Model the fold of this input.
Amino acid sequence: MPPEREVQVHLLPELAPPGRFVGGVAVVIDVLRASTTIVHALVAGCCAVRPCAEIDEAQTLAGSMRAGRVLLAGERGGAPLPGFDLGNSPLEYTPKSCKGCTLVLTTTNGTRALVRAAEAERALVAAFVNYSAVCEQLHQDARPVHILCAGTEGEVALEDTLLAGAIVDDLSEACEVRLNDAARLAWDCFENHGCLLQGALEVSRGGAILRKLGYDEDIRTACQVDRFHLVPELKRDPLRIEVGAVGIMKKRWRH
Amino acid sequence: MPPEREVQVHLLPELAPPGRFVGGVAVVIDVLRASTTIVHALVAGCCAVRPCAEIDEAQTLAGSMRAGRVLLAGERGGAPLPGFDLGNSPLEYTPKSCKGCTLVLTTTNGTRALVRAAEAERALVAAFVNYSAVCEQLHQDARPVHILCAGTEGEVALEDTLLAGAIVDDLSEACEVRLNDAARLAWDCFENHGCLLQGALEVSRGGAILRKLGYDEDIRTACQVDRFHLVPELKRDPLRIEVGAVGIMKKRWRH
Done:
């Protein structure tokens, strides 16, 4: 029998002790909206996304780069930031708005999780819109998997846990896995909510915040399972996200 | 239509921001094993349980009390503590071992959650063994409910989340509820694991730790839904747990 593969879910970045991801593959999830937006941006032709945890850090970094090729983007509490070029709505990221540019991105939850994932040997960015492509990358990799959910303002997020559970579901189908308790909770969440994706995203706290701000269309956009076949991957020196792999063999969504 | 009742689950004590429980009813859960043990101890005739987060604090408190009527009890990592009278196995708590005594208790996860719950207006202790009795107390109370899971050494625990979900399930049956995302995850967990309680406890991380230490019987004991009809309740000045209510109208477990 082949050895069990380690698959751990971390429902919030702060729930993963420092060093936990070392030697593993991290999968960063912030469905509403950073990870969905990053996929959209790379599909639209962005060269790279530079994640910054803090607003001033993003401003300093963008200021130090060559103007015209850099866009300052992000949000706090879901709302765009004054003086920034773009917000955090995936629909803003079209070839017209961002092709050929580097994006300096700071968001409430997602960019912190991305920076945290840098300790892993490899780090991918997952959303529903690139689900099967991410799963295939994980199948081709034997290292322990750490699925890192960004959450919503320090609280666990239904939509991130749901996608984490969908990835656990697919990995469990393919091989023997050793799950932590959070991975079992995430799997349960996928079992119950996977067939009603949009409804789950709408009742989630993150979804409620977006609906209040008028971003209903972003929720529908975030639900489009396998719309794209591209996997964003974290690169180093400097820390940035670029296109890691493109293409899928088959659709893996079970519901 | 009656107003929605607020029902929040907190998967770990540190995930609830300070002040969150003020004005509400807290329900503290540490299925393996502190909350199960506390129910057993009160049923066996313990007068009160004094929860202490730290070992030295427990020793000092027990030392300051009248000998013969006080028992020093607890564990770290599941194992009994040197020099302590009792461990944290519910089976140790018989009328012979503890009737008429005050228990000074310190455990790895549970007693910290109990101390944290003291900020609520009212705090109850829940286990599977007193499930319906706790639910009935919550039905008779209109305040917001905060279900606080102790977790296992800083990680979310399947068994605590499962019981939290069972309570969410019962409250949702009775009235309109406003749930946070963690409450939805807990409910999903109950949906999937509620019919296989012992199996869930055995695969959980806390269950694995106990099995390694030879406490398999404690897991079976913790699964005995509604074995008792007693609700431990936190009292103040000094902070202690005593029998709050006894009796149930009906069994509420749905699986």
Remarks:
- The first helix of chain B runs from residue 34 to 43.
- The CA atoms of residues 193 and 233 of chain B lie 27 Å apart.
- The first strand of chain B starts at residue 5 and ends at 10.
- Chain B has a mean pLDDT of 96.
